[in-house]
Structure formats: structure tokens, C-alpha cells
Records
---
Amino acid sequence: MPLAHSRSRSMIERCCQVLAFPLLLLAAGLAFAHGVQGDDKAFLEQNSGMHLMMYLYLGAKHMVTGYDHLLFLFGVVFFLYRMRDVAAYVTLFAIGHSATLLFGVLGGIHVNAYLVDAIIGLSVVYKALDNLGAFQRWFGFRPNTRVAVLVFGFFHGFGLATKLQEFELSPDGLVPNILAFNVGVELGQLLALSGILIVMGFWRRSETFARHAFAANTLLMTAGFMLIGYQLTGYFIS
């Protein structure tokens, strides 16, 4: 094995060892914190009528703090260098989660939150494996990424819907409130994505990006498996 390749692999392994444990702790901690809590929970339970700005704020906040959604977006844009490609994929994701968020809440379609969130974790694992080229090596072809992003977007939308379905929302002003929440989700997504792209832009210009891309996606996959395990455990013990 060439010395340079050996050193590069050793560096990646050390990077995984150093970063894996904090990442796992972060994923576990966020898993317990994910959802609508505190003053936001009290607002949803106690207020009726139209509160467009508040619902817009809640939608944006949920997306910005929604680690599972952000991990998936991070995986989606990891190897996208052109803004038109980023826009195309993010638009497909937005269409998917907007449709099922509105359909779930306004149509009264209830799904098991644990199972939906487990599938969201699976979406993170899928994108990490896709970035690593695993499907091409294992099966000889790569699944259509755009279709996958749209389909997983549907599940992410149901995940958002389950958070609101935990509360007895007043029917007074429900439709405009949920529409405002969805707009807030899109604004939050744009805000979070902007931060991700800025960081990725600086990282891609450094020499470490190519060397550490494998390690980053391995950690992303690990986080996805952690989310799946946490949600399935909740499903079986609830």
C-alpha cells in the first residue's frame, strides 16, 4: 500500500474515532429534545383563531432545529456543486414534505410517529450510502436520486404532521394557520440550507474535503442508524 494512501486512510480512521462519539451523543440528546415543547406547546394547546405569524415562526423553528431533516439535506447537497442542481433537489424535497404535511394535518391522516421518524432516519442512511457509491458497487446501478428525494420528502412531511397532530388544534383558523406553518417550514429550510451551503463552500475549497468525504458520510450514515434504532425502540416499548 502506498505510504500517502496509508497516511490518508489512517487520518480518516482517526477522524472517525474522534468525531463518532460526540456525534452519537449529539444525536441521542437531540432525539430526546425533538418536537414541540415549552411555550410553543402551551401556545398550540391554549389558543384558537388565526395566528399566522406565530405558526410561521413555529414552522421555521421546527425545520431549523429539526436535526433529522437537516441531516438528510446535508447528505442531499453534499456532492451538488451547481446551484441549479441544489435548487432542483430542494424543490423536490419541499414539494414532497409540503404535500404530506398539509394532507396529514388538514386531511386528518394519522400515521405512527415512531415508524415515520424511523423511515426519516432511513432516508439519512440512504443518502449517505448513495454518496459513498454503495448501491453502484452492490447492485450495479444507482437508484434515481431525484425520485428518492421526492419519496423521502413525503415521509419527512408526515413526520412534521405528526408533531402537530400531538395537539388538539382548534378548527378555528386551522387552514390558514397550517398554511402559515408550511411557509415557515420552507423559510426555515432555506435558512438552514444557506448555512449548510456556506460551510460546504469553504470546506470544498480546502484540501481536506476529498480526503474526509468518506469519513463524513460514514458518520452521517451512523447518525441515521442511531435515529432508526431510537425510533424503533420507542415504537416497540410504547
Note: Residues 18 and 202 are 22 Å apart (CA to CA).
---
Amino acid sequence: MQKWMLIDKDEIETGDVELFAKWKQSPSSLLWIEIEGSAEEADKKLPGEMLQLPEAEIQHALRDRHPPSFTVE
């Protein structure tokens, strides 16, 4: 399961993959994507592909018992 949050100034918007486009239009905002449980492989790869993250970083973040974090500018 994925949870998406867009944080812009004092506002927090929750939603899904549609928040990605809003994040790209607002450079001062923060996009938080949380992946919980045993998500489908496609669900795990989608955020990494959208953010153009290296495969090694995606696999590292998806390990059990490892809190993922990425900073993309």
C-alpha cells in the first residue's frame, strides 16, 4: 500500500500518484511516499521510476526494517 503526501508551507495534502505532478510544479514543496506491507512489485518501482532513482537505492530503501528516505532536487 502506498500513502502519498504533499507538504507545501503549512498545508498537507494526501492522495496518490497524482500528487507527483503538483510536486513538480512547486519547487518549495516536499513529497512523501510511504510504502507499507507487501506491495506489488509495480507499486514498489513506480516512485523510483518517477523520481529517476538508481535501482540500487530503490532496493536498499525497500529492505525490511529499514526506514527509506530520498532527497530529490
Note: Residues 36 and 61 are 12 Å apart (CA to CA).
---
Amino acid sequence: MGDFFHGWRRKTGVATLVLALAFTGGWFRSDLIHDAFGSPIGKSRAAGLLSAAGQLGVYVTTDNDAYNIPKQPAWKTCKRETFRALFPARSGFIWSWHYHEFGMLRHSSGNVSVVIIPYWSIVLPMSLLSAYLLLIKPRSSSPKNVVETVTAAGA
């Protein structure tokens, strides 16, 4: 079994599989519980991650006070029903661009931008890459041609 993990491909394949499983866990969790992580950047900006309804969002805001961004890094969670009840109060978001489940939202005030990526678009490529790296046969190293000089005996 120890021979299986020799080489960078197998090690990278296992690391990629672990990341794919972590994102899959986040995907399933996002259907029941919505998570938000926010952190201030400087005095008046903040950035963070949102996980809700099978999608991952990355946001940047230029007005911490208007959006209740904490003054230090913080993690918040709420149940799906609570999140849906709170979201309409945050109206004013419009799509800058949108393609199926991918998109970018901007607040009408211009203070917040959110990029939305569905979890499946992260999990699927990582799983395929992991399978490829773990299942391909390792290359057999070809023996190098060694040229030896033979000297005559007694010379």
C-alpha cells in the first residue's frame, strides 16, 4: 500500500479528493444551514464568504456600518427559514451579469458586490481531476543507458 502514494500525482489526487469531499459537505450543509463569514479590510471595507442554497458567494462591501459587518472577523450561521425571512429586507440587489446559477449581484447603492458560484461547479471538476490522478497508471521509469568503458587487462 505504501507504494501507491509514491509520486506527486497520487499525493495530489488524494489532496484534491479531500478538498472535493469538503466542498461536498459544504454543499449539503448549505441546503439546511446558511453560513456567512465576514472580515473587515481596513477602516471602511469588508470581504467575506456566504454559503446558502447550494451556492457559494464571495462578497466585498465598502460600507461596513450599513451591512452590519463586524469590526473583527466573525462567523454567523442561521437556519434556512431564518435566512429566507431576512433576505427580502435586503432588497435592492440587481444582477450585473447572470448565467444559469453563476452570477454577480450588486446593490443599487453600489456598496456591495457578490459573486455567486454553485457548489457543483467546484465539486465536479475536483472529483474528476482526483479520479484521473488516482486511477492513471504511474509511468514506469525506463532504465538509463549507462556506457562503461572497459579497459584491457594489463594495459
Note: The chain has one domain: 2-135.
---
Amino acid sequence: MTVDPSSPKNGKLLLSFVSRWQESLKWRIACAYGGVIMVLGLVVIGVAYQSMSQALRSRFDQQDYATATNLSDVAAGYMAVQQNFGLHAYVTKYARLDGVAYAFIEDRAGEVVAHSLRSFPVELVQTLSPGERRQTGRVALQYQGQSVYETRVPILEGQLGVVHLGVWAEFAEREIRRVIVPVIALIATITFAGVVLSLFLAHRIVRPIRELTDAAGKISTGDLETPIALHFRDEVGELARSLERMRTSLKTAIWRLSRAG
């Protein structure tokens, strides 16, 4: 059985079907644009998070090393004249810096000569080889049930002892999040705006096609009086002009047939 598109009933069905198809086309375009933007946004967020995290951790490591080095330079002067009381006060001062969990100094025999703690815990006791005492090091430890990053710096290349500076890992992670979260939020906001823009662009792309489909549906139902007024310079505009020429030709042909009859 053939379908007569000139039938009003079939024309309405055709118009309804094409409208639903156009609506799905709109969402396909929106999903395509939005999907690409979402993927790019997630990639940018991942790369930004990794690169910024590494850069900030490196910066904190350098800051801890600089603090421990300053303490080592001060400790060298006190230990050279064996003024451990003044050294203890200076170590306590350094331990009051933001994020510092503790600070203590070992002499070359491995004895703790100054520390910032009320009582020195056994969990911080370390046995270092002569080679380790002459080298800068950084290790992750557990202190009071929490993670600590400890930086070791030798005093006069290990001849007088070693400085130990512990920084709370949670403090470093919190500072990293404080810097990264606003940047990630900004990227996420831009990504969301891009998805919304893709919906808007999809609507702008599909709207003239929908108008042409409506016009074609009217022509198929016999309505030849409504002109097609779409003024675009692209392929959609060319299609609109072709439909307008077809409408005009059909109207003229019908008028001639009616005059001939």
C-alpha cells in the first residue's frame, strides 16, 4: 500500500514524525558537542590536578628543606660552643611554625640533644648510618597516629649531628587542596558553561531545519499560501529558497489548472 503525502492525515503524521526526528537531532547534536566538552573538561581537570599537586608538593618539600637548613645553620653555632639550653629554645621556636609537628636535633653519636616535645617518643627514634647522617633525606612516618613528612638535614655535613623536622601530612594536603580546589571549580564551571552553550548552539542549528520541515509539512497538506521567509546565506538558506520556489511553482501550476478547467 502506498502512502499519499498529499493527504491531510498523512501530512500530519509526516509532520509529527519529522518533528520528533528533529527533536532527537537536536539532542544528538547537543550530546555530541556536550560530550566532547565534558571529556576535554575532565582531561583538563585531571592534568591540572596532577601537575598542580606535584608542583605544590615540590614547593612544600623545598620550603621544609629551607626551614630545616636554617635550623641546621643555627644549631651548628650552638653545638660548636655546647650551649644546648639555647639550642632547645631555638628548636621550640621552629616547632611553632604552621604545620610543624616536631623538631629535634641529634648529635653525631645519635643522642637527642634538643627537641620540641614534652617527652621524646620512642616512635621517632631512628638508627642512621654514618652515610645517612651526611645526606639530606625525607621520609614518611607515623606520629600520634597521623602521617608526618620528616626532613633530615646534616649539621656541618654530619660532623656535629642531624636536624629532624616533621611536618603534618594533613597540613600539606590541606594547603594543596586550598590552592587547587578554586582552580578545579573554575574549570568545572567553564565546562558546565560549555555544555549549556552546546545546548544553545544545537537549538540554533536545528531551529531553521524545524521551520523548513514545518513549511514542507504545510505544502504537503496543500497549504501553498504561507511563504517561506528564512534568510540565510548557507546551505539552509539555499534549501529554504528551493522550497519557496517549489511552493510558488506549485501554486502557479494549480492556479493554471483551475483556470484551464
Note: The first helix runs from residue 8 to 80.
